[in-house]
Design brief:
alpha+beta; five-stranded parallel beta sheet; 22 strands; binds adenosine-5'-diphosphate
């Protein structure tokens, strides 16, 4: 086992990893920018190193600075959290060159899944159902017409190098295709320096369902069911739950098995998420994330596992403790992502936290790096906490969520907490009848 792990991240996810390290008797090293000197992850780690000025590119994204921090502290492994360098194949390669372990998959797997066409081709070959679309890149408008005519409209033109919802354009009819094609290409060129695009059938009312997988890197893998992350604003998830109100045990077992077999076949190591759009009882692969997800706690709650501990064990060569037959979902978990933002426009609301009280009690988990007196810096993501509740069933989880929100106090800054009270009052949320467009439409109507 490693004796020292460096966490190349900040905020609640850095705390999440430090907590696992403490429980495993591993020394933890925090890194921080000059804006984060007083951050909770710095206080909670066994040691800390300043790696640069506030700007993320000069600190949390600076590979040389993080490597130096490893060398200064003698860290043997790096946990990347999510975001920042977590899906950067070059970072993994540089760590390898310095004999430092990366707690995650190989650079090759990160590369394969980072390119959307290669990811889709790989998954299709592994028997994972994909959205119907072009075979690879579509270089000309003539070819885009041909593929779209065959498939039928609406279609969506997507950037091969895409991410964060950019470089994606919808063509509702044949008349829209030329514009969608040229805009997607120029957006992709500007955002990713690569104008390759492909065409997919556009699904009109799908849910976003993702399967948590975990591999030991040696041909064995398991799945831990699904998370329903359909409630999104600007392609950002807001509220996640497991199990999905739309999936039954037989469907879960079938898609889960397909996904676990696919990652086992490529000797995938560590945690991964296979994302699907789900419509009319059918799954369509859209992408794979080769890291721990923000919403991993809902899976931990219903399956009773510690995914970070498993990640560390696999990276240290100790294998994974999970066996598929032991992984039985229990009850229902919901996560709310609480942001320092002012409603109804969601403007970032950094500043000093004058009072803070975290909810607690049975079945409540609050993952947050806030404390009273802390000043939230304006340079980073606005996520300040994840409130996760777990109960025997969905109605009880919704009731527990409302109770936990009542206990949550943050003064001095605006947060998105009021949004969740309003959502809890909605009949569609109470019954679970929503899709990926539901939240955007609802927000338009309440504004
Ligand atoms: P990114 O990597 O940029 O986030 P994804 O491929 O994961 O892109 O897609 C992001 C979101 O865009 C999906 O969650 C869904 O809302 C929408 N989307 C993507 N592909 C399709 C499709 N074929 N049909 C309908 N919506 C889609």
């Amino acid at each position: 086992m490693f004796s020292k792990i460096l966490i190349a991240n900040r905020g609640e996810i850095a705390l999440r990893v430090i907590r696992a390290c403490k429980e495993m008797g591993i020394h933890s090293v925090a890194v921080h920018s000059t804006a984060d000197t007083d951050a909770m992850h710095v206080r909670m780690a066994d040691e800390s190193v300043c790696i640069g000025p506030p700007s993320g590119t000069q600190s949390y994204l600076s590979i040389p600075n993080i490597i130096s921090a490893c060398e200064i502290t003698g860290a043997e492994a790096v946990h990347p959290g999510y975001g920042f360098l977590s899906e950067n194949a070059n970072f993994v390669q540089v760590l390898e060159d310095h004999d430092i372990a990366f707690i995650g998959p190989t650079s090759e797997h990160i590369n394969t899944m980072g390119d959307k066409i290669t990811a889709k081709e790989t998954m299709r070959k592994l028997g994972v159902p994909c959205v119907p679309g072009s075979d690879g890149g579509v270089p000309t408008i003539e070819e885009a017409h041909k593929v779209s005519d065959e498939m039928g409209y609406p279609v969506i033109v997507k950037a091969t190098a895409g991410g964060g919802g950019r470089g994606m354009k919808l063509a509702k009819t044949k008349d829209d295709l030329e514009e969608a094609f040229s805009t997607a290409r120029s957006e992709a060129k500007a955002a990713f320096g690569n104008d390759e695009v492909y065409v997919e059938k556009y699904l009109t009312l799908p849910r976003h369902i993702e399967i948590q997988v975990f591999g030991d890197g040696k041909g064995r893998a398991v799945h831990l069911g699904e998370r329903d992350c359909s409630l999104q604003r600007r392609h950002q998830k807001v509220f996640e739950e497991s199990p999905s109100p739309a999936i039954d045990a037989a469907t879960r077992a079938e898609i889960g098995k397909t996904c676990a077999e696919a990652v086992a076949a490529i000797n995938y190591a560590g945690a991964g998420t296979i994302e699907f759009l789900y419509e009319n009882g059918e799954f369509f692969f859209i992408e794979m994330n080769t890291r721990l997800q923000v919403e991993h706690p809902v899976t931990e709650a219903v399956y009773g596992v510690d995914l970070v501990r498993e990640q560390i064990n696999v990276a240290a060569g100790l294998g994974m403790s999970m066996q598929q037959e032991d992984l039985v979902p229990l009850g229902h978990a919901i996560e709310c992502r609480i942001n320092a933002e002012k409603l109804p426009q969601f403007q970032p609301s950094p500043g000093k936290v004058l009072a803070y009280h975290a909810p607690g009690g049975l079945g409540v988990r609050m993952d947050s790096a806030l404390y009273q007196g802390y000043s939230i810096p304006p340079y980073y993501d606005s996520l300040i906490g994840k409130l996760i509740v777990h109960s025997p069933d969905r109605p009880a989880a919704l009731a527990r969520l409302r109770r936990a929100l009542d206990e949550f106090i943050v003064d001095g800054i605006d947060t998105t907490t009021p949004l969740f009270y309003q959502l809890l009052d909605e009949p569609d949320i109470q019954t679970g009848d929503y899709n990926i467009h539901w939240l955007e439409k609802w927000l338009e109507n309440i504004e």
